[in-house]
Design goal:
about 750 residues; mainly alpha; 4 domains; Memb_transporter_dom
Length: about 750
């Protein structure tokens, strides 16, 4: 019974870790709700009135969510600096509330400065956010000179409560966050293996659903890997340890993605394209028949289940003869003599399982240190020796500082000008709608500019906020009617809604806006200013603020979505060239390069492009052909990035791996692919450029290889496979991007 209970707790922990990597959303929600609850408890003990309770709740929320640094020391400094900024802001709000024009002018200047401060990093962003939100707080509660001393005391209390929750009750050190992210990576890796197991067993009518699950699992695993990479420097003791973890995370991700592709190929009647794993909604390749329950398939099913067990047990402190036996059997598939009798495609899957087991072993050694080697088989011992040699060769390197734009071309300056103009329009229009609550339009205009960089992104964000606000108004009406004048019941519901708001914020901006608006309905009830007209006015002001933000973005120093996506596409292509050239150069016998850093930069550039294309692929976008094109291009680029990452990972094995040797012919064979990427980049930058994408013989034939269909087992053939797939994907990019393709020479 005790073991069963522990198993249930473990499964629940893994499920939570996979759904909320690093428990970042849970931590943010608990910390914010705790700070608000503590502030309210102290104020209630002191007998504060409802206005001060509302002000304390809002100030505690701002003081908690505004801080963005990862290290506790910088967080403390920013919080300490934020208190005088907040006090100055509320004092100015109390003084200027009654002065119409002076107050409006100051509010616009404050908004400009708050956005401009983003150029100074996380601390500048936090201080600007605190200054704006506390000034808004003063407008919301109607701050006056007579109430100013009490308000200042409430804000100071709120900041102290936030500090107590952040540093004592719900601390989140970089090391602890990174440890939870590793747990999430392991849980998501196990989920991906489970999805691959379902793909093995799926019937012909279930393949599309099973493939979609594998596709989602692959994307979620990559998301976890990116989150870990973003926190490695702060969460590891030194640069060498960070690079070691980065390498092992990359190995595990690549091995898992390769295993899915090999399994899909084994299940289908034709060669599976890597693009199938990256293009949402793409149908599964034709399936000859359902999985045949022969001996090889049964063994494959057993070993996929064993791999999932190995992933789940890795890093959990579990050891023993049974686990060692499973690990030894799976690692044995790296040797040809241990492969079971089966078709070539199925044997490739067994090889993929062996490589995945090696990646899991490397990940466990990197995260948990040396392991018990008493039960190692020869294959396991060899894998350990390879991993040890690779670990010893990993060293740190320096990254070049990116060139920063100046003047109005700097994103923060441009955004500050845009939001100042939009806020001016929102103030003018908002006061026409309501002389008392015009600030809601300004708040919406401010918010739609947060974390956006193009007119299309601002339009989509404004639409989502308006949609969430409309539904939130309905919820606010229902909740206000249920709560009535029960103050503490209303505050309890406010805490629940705030937690939900922070928990869903990274997942859905519409849901976040819904919870915010429902919460405001309760706050209006507490302030005895609730009415249906007030909530309807909230919708009108939100629509006005979104419209003003879109108008300012479209008319003042506009950055059109096409222009931004083209710029980011050029960056992705540039970094793809960098990774490919460096990897092929090293595989050809050239000097070592910072391949891990280059691959990480490529992944980050691709993530930025994926985010920037959201306005193009949003369901409300009327241009369906354009939406499909954007999805197809991003999927092709993800395919290119996968092959480039794999080439980089293989190239890094060269200095130490006993079975990999440099081949000087690779540089010449890959030259056409590199030229084609550069050609596409030139055409993206200038549509009138005379540029042609080259086609020709396969990469294998350029090397004089007889491996027309390269097998998985040999390293050289594996490199050829990835080079060929990369070459095919790059040529495939030409059509949707309108780049002419030269006819192959006969």
């Amino acid at each position: 019974m005790r073991a069963a209970g522990r198993s249930v707790r473990t499964r629940l922990r893994d499920r939570i870790a996979a759904s909320d990597p690093g428990l970042l959303r849970l931590t943010a929600g608990l910390r914010t709700v705790g700070a608000i609850a503590l502030t309210l408890a102290v104020l209630a003990t002191l007998g504060a009135d409802v206005h001060l309770l509302v002000a304390g709740a809002m100030a505690a929320m701002v003081a908690t969510f505004a801080i963005r640094e990862k290290q506790l020391g910088p967080q403390a400094v920013t919080l300490a600096l934020g208190l005088p900024v907040a006090l100055a802001s509320v004092c100015l709000g109390a003084v200027l509330n009654a002065r119409l024009y002076a107050g409006d002018i100051f509010f616009v200047v404050l908004i400009f400065c708050a956005v401009y401060c983003r150029r100074f990093g996380d601390r500048g962003t936090a201080l600007g956010l605190i200054g704006f939100q506390v000034y808004f707080l003063s407008l919301f509660v109607g701050a006056t000179l007579s109430s100013l001393p009490a308000l200042c005391g409430v804000i100071a209390l709120a900041f102290c409560s936030s500090a107590l929750l952040r540093f004592a009750v719900v601390p989140a050190t970089p090391t602890a966050v990174l440890q939870r992210l590793r747990l999430a990576f392991r849980a998501r890796l196990a989920q991906l293996v489970s999805a691959q197991l379902d793909l093995l067993d799926a019937g012909t009518d279930e393949m599309d659903k099973a493939l979609e699950a594998v596709r989602d699992g692959t994307a979620r695993l990559h998301e976890s890997a990116m989150m870990i990479q973003a926190r490695l420097e702060e969460g590891t003791p030194d640069e060498s340890a960070a690079r070691l973890v980065q390498r092992r995370i990359a190995d595990a991700e690549i091995a898992a993605e390769r295993l899915g592709l090999l399994l899909l190929t084994a299940r289908t009647a034709e060669r599976a394209d890597t693009l199938t794993l990256h293009l949402p909604g793409a149908p599964a390749p034709s399936v000859g028949q359902a999985a045949v329950p022969d001996e090889a398939t049964a063994t494959l099913r057993r070993d996929l289940q064993a791999l999932r067990t190995l992933v789940l047990r890795a890093g959990g402190g579990d050891s023993g003869t049974a686990l060692a036996h499973v690990r030894n059997r799976l690692l044995g598939y790296r040797d040809e003599e241990n492969l079971p009798p089966a078709s070539a495609a199925v044997q490739d899957v067994f090889r993929g399982i062996g490589e995945s087991a090696r990646a899991v072993l490397g990940l466990r050694i990197a995260l948990d240190g040396p392991q018990d080697e008493s039960d190692d088989s020869p294959a396991t011992a060899r894998s350990r020796e390879e991993l040890d040699a690779e670990d010893a060769a990993i060293d740190g390197g320096e990254e070049a500082e990116p060139q920063e734009e100046t003047g109005l071309r700097r994103p923060t300056t441009r955004a500050a000008v845009q939001v100042a103009v939009g806020s001016s329009l929102a103030i003018a229009g908002g006061e026409l709608l309501s002389a008392q609550r015009w600030y809601w339009a300004v708040l919406t205009c401010w918010i739609v500019f947060l974390n956006t960089a193009s007119t299309g992104e601002i339009l989509v964000k404004g639409y989502r906020r308006l949609l969430g606000t409309v539904f939130g108004v309905v919820a606010g009406i229902v909740l206000a009617g249920l709560v009535g004048q029960h103050t503490w019941t209303a505050f309890a519901l406010v805490l629940v809604l705030i937690f939900a708001m922070f928990y869903v914020a990274p997942l859905s901006y519409t849901l976040m806006s819904f919870f915010v608006t429902a919460m405001l309905g309760l706050l209006y009830t507490l302030l005895h200013t609730y009415s249906l007209d007030v909530l309807l006015l909230r919708v009108e002001e939100t629509a006005l603020g979104a419209a003003c933000g879109v108008a300012a973005a479209a008319l003042v120093l506009p950055v059109r979505t096409d222009r931004r996506t083209n710029e980011l596409l050029g960056t992705v292509l540039e970094r793809l060239v960098s990774v490919t050239e460096a990897a092929v150069g090293q595989l050809s016998g050239g000097p070592p390069d910072e391949l891990l850093d280059k691959a990480r930069d490529l992944d980050q550039a691709l993530a930025d492009l994926r985010a920037a294309t959201q306005p193009l692929i949003h369901p409300v976008t009327p241009l369906r052909a354009r939406r499909h094109t954007a999805r197809y291009v991003v999927a092709l680029l993800e395919t290119c990035a996968y092959h480039a990452r794999t080439l980089a990972a293989t190239a890094e094995l060269l200095p130490t791996h006993p079975s990999i040797a440099a081949d000087p012919r690779l540089r010449g064979a890959a030259a056409r692919t590199v030229r084609n990427i550069e050609t596409i980049a030139v055409r993206v930058a200038d549509q009138h450029a005379a540029a042609l994408v080259e086609t020709g013989p396969s990469i294998a034939s350029l090397l004089g290889s007889d491996a027309g269909t390269p097998r998985y087992g040999r390293i050289t053939d594996r490199v050829l496979r990835h080079l060929e797939r990369l070459d095919e994907a790059v040529v495939g990019l030409a059509r949707p991007l309108d780049v002419p393709v030269a006819a192959p020479q006969k």
